[in-house]
């Protein structure tokens, strides 16, 4: 559906609340448009366009909650949905952990999450961006498989205590894999932005092409512990696992890598190398995020790890109340401070090591140590005396991001990247890590 | 439903609390009402609006999928019902071929004008994208079925079972775990009903009503003194069944180191056992790395089959359509064309199936209007076929599609998805006890856990829920910190025996992820317990 303005959202949410007879009621609405082109074998495969929206109505009596959603917004449909949510609330059992809805909140001014030019992308513009990418493939005698998607979205919420929040956003996401004609080489690049002006499908496809042509005839090396340089698209898939696990409740309950013997936690402890600083900041112009979260709590700048020390864990509103602390919502985005070196300088300063373009199929192995497994993919190279010497076969790793960040050797310049596993964007640097644990070889290209 | 939506809606993912962007993604819903029944004649009229509008704009083929997708979760945390969620999604997806190119558009506004506009958008996209297409889409012929219907053969519709029965069940399950020493318990009942109507310009009007269930729990035992903890997840399977799956039946139980389940699940019994076993895992011996013979229970082996046989035999992967995300396949066409490619030992017979009652893949027709069937994938260890859909069938010389097309909702485009891929039982009588009695140094693995495989499906690593050490034909105790790594072809060639049909069971998942944007598909994998010789086992214990 079309993007609803703040006033339009207010009007429709107020209308929904006007039908409420519950102790408290909260209504949210979100929607938008998205369109994509998917291509493979140097030709378009599938593509599509979607407009959709949804309203959620939550009604509560005491500690009983009922929730209904709908995507029809006539007076009759909304009134009926409100009534239904109240009937359900009366049927639901009491939840001792239920928290009443929040009162009015003050949010920082919205950063520039919405870029009109991204929302205005036409089908012809999308096709042209893909055509540029396909041209690179054909010129280099490579086979392209890629994906380009843009979207524009709105979200708003209001409750019977006077809370109101509204935001709009845009996104453009691109990923490209190029393979050599003999299937012996493969290269990859991915980017995600709010602003289409930053999305250069031609330049990013050229990077993938360089990796593909350079990765044929890969040599096998023995699995073991190696110095690695993780490009941001590779590093993020492990960093987000650490970041996503900074939860107070599981740590307090003794079932987290942050738990310590005797019922204590590692909050306040030095967990990783002192050069590691990880924080959230919705106002960062390179990674703008909404200044409010899904339950209406403000999203602010917050440090998670400072000089290697765990400074904050997320606390749900219930857990915060139980523990007598302030609630800490999960962060709106992930930012890790970097250094001053470029990727090329990091390579130059490496005596022996492995350059990793992408890590793939990341799965937890042991929550006690936050151990994960996965493999390198689409461009893995051996470095000797500061130079890329030859492509190597892919390797499986078993490693914990905690161990990895303790073995930190050097940080490059922070840049915006996107996780190929979760789809989340982040600002992180390329990282040089010592003694990264590879456990077996893979024949996959 | 996408896996991450599920994790969010159920609160089962610890990381969900840290990823606040996810809050805008899912919509916790609880309509509690059955979907408004729409008369099939009205559905046909709506679909015809799409078909006619696309044809008028120059489409040479059109299909329209009108869908209402219902999910229900009942979610507990320890002694509380944490969430009761119904999600409901209703709309139409329209796929066309124009200028020889695919186009797709979807709408949740279902008046005639909105449907026609979506059809026109799909045609416009197809025409625009035909600029960058190398060769026109070639569809395998498909006869129209006229007006037909199909329904999952359920005994008890889970959406009609009173909510109190469900909340009482889960709270008593959690209680059973607590009584046996658990510190924490999460449990979920997950029900799915896909009500979908398919119409195409081939002359098919197909009405289907598809049901699935999945009861799951996780039990945690904490040793506060040492700071160690262990979990044990449920040994249930997701099934294409109704609520009857949750009504225990003794004839469906198999007694082993723990009770295992065929077509009925005893959630209480499994939760009680899980609590005891989580405590045992805390004291279990850490594994000595090296080569072991592995005896793999179907509750574990389904996932190895899924990753190492199911995915590499998807024809779209083989051809490169998934190269940018899910990956390609080592089972290239040249290997298949030899007719001799030795995928596994003679004991390995693997069948693709969209018919098997009670399985997740069973439907009457796929999402491009093709009737479903069964066929061989691996025969006596040799690769004999793939899995495919209408626009790729001609590439392997097929005259018709194998009926493997699926979309997770009305708003996503349909594409090739895995049918049930199952290892056939051994033909000679063989029990698990007899199998174990012949193993000198081995590990008996029950339940699935960590899984990871490369993008061409050569190198994999798997873990389980329970590991029992086998020495000289006898189980001597429990092990911990086990993961096995192997190469797919070597692994399946090491398959020395498969137990007989009396041990055959289904495993599976609702969350097989593939495609961009990523879509989830539900799929089952059957097997009997199987023996693999000399597999490399690593020790996963580390210190932080």
From TrEMBL, chain A:
Residues 223-439 form the Metalloprotease TldD/E C-terminal domain. It holds the Pfam family PmbA_TldD_2nd. Signal peptide: none annotated. GO terms for biological process: proteolysis. Residues 143-212 form the Metalloprotease TldD/E central domain. Residues 25-89 form the Metalloprotease TldD/E N-terminal domain. One of its GO terms (molecular function) is metallopeptidase activity. InterPro entries: Metalloprtase-TldD/E_C, Metalloprtase-TldD/E_cen_dom, Metalloprtase-TldD/E_N, TldD/PmbA_N, TldD/PmbA_sf. Belongs to the peptidase U62 family. This is TldD/PmbA family protein. It comes from Mucilaginibacter glaciei.
From TrEMBL, chain B:
GO terms for biological process: proteolysis. Gene3D superfamilies: PmbA/TldD superfamily. Residues 289-537 form the Metalloprotease TldD/E C-terminal domain. GO terms for cellular component: cytosol. Keywords: Hydrolase, Metalloprotease, Protease. SUPFAM superfamilies: Putative modulator of DNA gyrase, PmbA/TldD (SSF111283). It comes from the Bacteria. GO terms for molecular function: metallopeptidase activity. Residues 63-126 form the Metalloprotease TldD/E N-terminal domain. Belongs to the peptidase U62 family. PANTHER family: CONSERVED PROTEIN, UNCHARACTERIZED PROTEIN TLDD AND PMBA. This is TldD/PmbA family protein. It comes from Mucilaginibacter glaciei.
């Amino acid at each position: 559906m079309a993007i609803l303005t703040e006033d339009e959202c207010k009007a429709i949410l107020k209308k929904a609340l006007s039908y409420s007879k519950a102790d408290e009621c909260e209504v949210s609405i979100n929607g938008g448009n998205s369109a994509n082109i998917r291509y493979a074998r140097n030709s378009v495969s599938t593509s599509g366009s979607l407009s959709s929206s949804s309203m959620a109505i939550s009604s509560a009596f005491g500690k009983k909650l009922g929730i209904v959603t709908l995507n029809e917004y006539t007076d009759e449909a909304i009134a009926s949905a409100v009534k239904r949510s109240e009937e359900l609330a009366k049927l639901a059992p009491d939840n001792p952990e239920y928290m009443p809805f929040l009162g009015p909140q003050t949010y920082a001014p919205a950063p520039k999450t919405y870029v009109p030019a991204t929302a205005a992308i036409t089908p012809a513009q999308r096709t042209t961006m893909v055509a540029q990418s396909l041209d690179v493939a054909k010129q280099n005698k490579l086979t392209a498989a890629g994906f380009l998607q843009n979207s524009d979205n709105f979200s708003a919420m209001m409750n019977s205590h006077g809370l109101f929040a509204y935001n709009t956003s845009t996104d453009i996401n691109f990923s490209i894999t190029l393979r050599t004609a003999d299937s012996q080489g493969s290269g990859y690049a991915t980017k995600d932005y709010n602003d289409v002006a930053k999305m250069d499908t031609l330049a990013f496809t050229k990077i993938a092409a360089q990796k593909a042509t350079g990765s044929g005839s890969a040599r096998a090396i023995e699995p073991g512990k190696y110095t690695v340089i993780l490009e941001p698209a590779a590093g993020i898939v492990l960093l987000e696992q650490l970041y996503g696990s900074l939860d107070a409740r599981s740590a307090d309950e003794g079932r987290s890598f942050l738990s310590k013997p005797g019922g204590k936690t590692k909050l306040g402890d030095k967990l990783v190398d002192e050069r590691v600083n990880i924080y959230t900041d919705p106002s960062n112009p390179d990674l703008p995020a909404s200044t409010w979260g899904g339950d209406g709590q403000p999203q602010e700048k917050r440090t998670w790890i400072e000089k290697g020390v765990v400074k904050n864990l997320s606390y749900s509103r219930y857990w915060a109340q139980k523990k007598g602390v302030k609630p800490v919502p999960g962060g709106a985005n992930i930012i890790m401070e970097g250094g001053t070196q470029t990727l090329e300088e990091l390579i130059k300063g490496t005596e022996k090591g492995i350059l990793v373009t992408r890590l793939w199929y990341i799965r937890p192995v042991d929550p006690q140590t936050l151990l994960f497994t996965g493999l390198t993919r689409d461009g893995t190279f051996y470095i000797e005396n500061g130079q890329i010497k030859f492509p190597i076969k892919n390797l499986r790793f078993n490693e914990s991001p905690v161990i990895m960040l303790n073995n930190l050797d050097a940080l490059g310049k922070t840049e915006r990247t996107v996780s190929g596993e979760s789809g989340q964007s982040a600002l992180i640097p390329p990282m040089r890590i010592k003694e990264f644990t590879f456990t077996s070889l893979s024949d996959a290209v | 439903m996408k896996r991450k939506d599920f994790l969010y809606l159920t609160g089962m993912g610890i990381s969900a609390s840290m990823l606040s962007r996810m809050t805008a993604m899912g919509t916790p819903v609880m309509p509690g009402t059955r979907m408004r029944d729409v008369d099939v004649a009205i559905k046909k009229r709506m679909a015809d609006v799409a078909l006619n509008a696309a044809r008028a704009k120059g489409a040479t083929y059109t299909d329209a999928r009108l869908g209402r997708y219902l999910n229900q979760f009942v979610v507990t945390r320890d002694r509380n019902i944490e969430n009761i969620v119904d999600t409901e999604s209703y709309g139409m997806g329209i796929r066309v071929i124009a200028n020889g190119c695919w186009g797709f558009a979807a709408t949740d506004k279902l008046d005639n004008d909105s449907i026609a506009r979506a059809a026109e958008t799909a045609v416009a996209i197809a025409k625009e994208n035909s600029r960058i297409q190398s060769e026109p889409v070639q569809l395998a012929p498909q006869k129209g079925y006229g007006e037909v219907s199909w329904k999952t053969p359920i005994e008890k519709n889970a959406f009609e079972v009173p909510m109190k029965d469900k909340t009482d069940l889960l709270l008593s399950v959690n209680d059973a775990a607590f009584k046996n020493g658990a510190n924490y318990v999460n449990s979920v009942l997950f029900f799915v009903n896909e009500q979908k109507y398919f119409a195409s310009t081939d002359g098919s009007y197909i009405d289907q009503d598809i049901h699935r269930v999945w009861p799951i729990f996780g039990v945690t035992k904490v040793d506060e003194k040492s700071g160690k903890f262990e979990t044990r997840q449920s040994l249930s399977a997701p099934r294409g069944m109704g609520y009857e799956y949750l009504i225990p039946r003794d004839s469906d139980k198999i007694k082993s180191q723990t009770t295992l389940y065929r077509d009925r699940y005893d959630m209480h019994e499994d939760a009680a056992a899980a609590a005891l076993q989580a405590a045992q895992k805390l004291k279990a011996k850490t594994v000595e790395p090296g080569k072991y013979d592995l005896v793999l229970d179907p509750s574990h082996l389904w996932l190895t089959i899924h990753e190492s046989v199911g995915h590499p035999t998807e024809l779209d992967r083989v051809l490169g359509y998934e190269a940018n995300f899910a990956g390609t396949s080592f089972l290239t066409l040249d290997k298949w064309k030899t007719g001799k490619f030795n995928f596994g030992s003679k004991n390995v017979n693997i069948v693709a199936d969209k018919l098997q009652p009670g399985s997740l893949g069973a439907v009457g027709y796929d999402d491009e209007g093709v009737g479903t069937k069964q066929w061989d994938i691996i025969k006596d260890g040799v690769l004999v076929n793939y899995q495919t859909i209408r626009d790729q069938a001609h590439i392997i010389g097929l005259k018709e599609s194998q009926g493997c097309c699926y979309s997770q909702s009305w708003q996503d485009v349909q594409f090739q998805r895995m049918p049930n891929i199952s290892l056939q039982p051994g033909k000679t009588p063989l029990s698990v006890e007899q199998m174990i009695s012949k193993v000198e140094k081995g590990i008996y693995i029950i339940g699935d856990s960590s899984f990871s495989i490369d993008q061409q499906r050569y190198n994999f690593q798997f873990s389980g829920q329970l590991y029992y050490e086998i020495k000289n034909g006898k189980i001597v105790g429990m092990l911990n910190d086990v993961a096995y790594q192997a190469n797919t072809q070597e692994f399946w060639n090491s398959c020395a025996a498969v137990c007989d049909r009396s041990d055959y069971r289904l495993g599976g998942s609702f969350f097989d992820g593939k495609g961009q944007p990523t879509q989830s598909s539900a799929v089952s994998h059957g097997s009997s317990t199987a023996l693999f010789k000399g597999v490399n086992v690593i020790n996963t214990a580390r210190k932080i």
